[in-house]
Specification:
Helix content: 25-40%
Structural class: alpha/beta
Strand order of the largest sheet: 4-1-5-10-9-6-7-8
Strand content: 15-25%
CATH architecture: 3-Layer(aba) Sandwich
Shape: globular
Mean pLDDT: 94
Distance between the termini: 35 Å
Largest sheet: 8 strands, parallel
Length: 289
């Protein structure tokens, strides 16, 4: 029987793993519909239902040495302490020359992982796939929020370091900020190849807010936004970044299983995780990292 205690039943231990997947079940700053705290446990339990073989890449996930570190036990309601604990965990993985993949949880936790990268690298680029700009200075007076995460990341990495795609929602001030401080492309991934060429020598963090997908294919998220991309578009864009950049870490954020009782959104997130695990391992095997 396939275990439902780990992602895809992996039995790879931490020492032998190249890639470490961990859950960050936290959604205390969610502004509309909470529930992302349940994403990693739901994905883990449902992962037995997905085939491990990727016909597109002709690789079986059983060939990928990845470890499931489980879900972090986070102090629900304390955003600052949560960011600290997630950052410490991610930094430890990076320090041991392993590749962390965080499964959120809400998007504010990306700040923790980027801060961890900043301990080890100076030339950092953030590739951000999302429906929302996440560039508010504050949300209802709160500076640490899933609506402000890219603004806080910008404070760490500076101008010309954040590259945003799929964006189709935000207030006017966010887009004015983006015009001066980030690269923001509306609705899809046009121009991604040019960005990859620009940042190919940087250390890259890839953050994917799954609501970049159109809600017709991914309704299970807290802030659905019409006009999104397809699964194939997202997968191919992620492949381009992994293949063309020196990606050090990544995340998949904002799946909220309670809002999709059909399970389609969870299955979609799992398939993207499977494909990315295989693609990242292929890159690592080629000794590019």
């Amino acid at each position: 029987m396939i275990s439902s205690n780990t992602f895809f039943g992996t039995e790879c231990n931490y020492e032998d793993a190249r890639i470490v997947v961990f859950g960050a079940p936290f959604d205390s700053t969610t502004s509309y519909r909470p529930g992302t705290r349940f994403a990693s446990r739901t994905m883990r339990a449902e992962s037995y239902g997905l085939e491990y073989f990727s016909p597109g890449q002709n690789v079986d996930l059983s060939e990928v040495p990845f470890h499931d570190a489980g879900d972090l036990e986070l102090p629900f309601g304390d955003t600052n302490q949560t960011i600290y604990e997630v950052g410490e965990f991610a930094a430890n993985i990076i320090n041991q020359n392993k590749f962390p993949i965080m499964i959120g949880g809400e998007h504010v936790l990306t700040l923790a992982a980027v801060a961890a990268m900043c301990r080890f690298f100076k030339d950092i680029a953030i590739v951000h796939f999302d429906a929302h700009a996440d560039l508010r200075e504050d949300y209802l007076g709160v500076r640490l929020s899933h609506a402000t995460v890219m603004r806080r990341v910008h404070e760490l990495t500076g101008d010309n370091s954040i590259f945003q795609f799929g964006i189709r929602s935000g207030d006017k001030a966010e887009f004015e900020f983006a015009r001066q401080h980030t690269y923001l492309h509306l609705f899809d991934f046009e121009g991604l190849e040019d960005v990859i060429d620009k940042i190919k020598d940087s250390q890259v963090y890839l953050t994917i807010d799954l609501d970049v997908l159109d809600p017709s294919v991914f309704p299970g998220t807290g802030t659905p936004e019409a006009g999104g991309v397809s699964f194939i578009q997202l997968m191919n864009a992620a492949f381009k970044v992994i293949d063309g950049c020196n990606v050090i870490a990544c995340d998949l954020m904002e799946l909220s299983p309670p809002y999709d009782p059909s399970g389609i959104s969870t299955a979609t997130a799992l398939k993207l995780l499977r494909e990315m695990l295989i693609r990242i391992n292929t890159k690592l095997s080629n000794n590019v990292y």
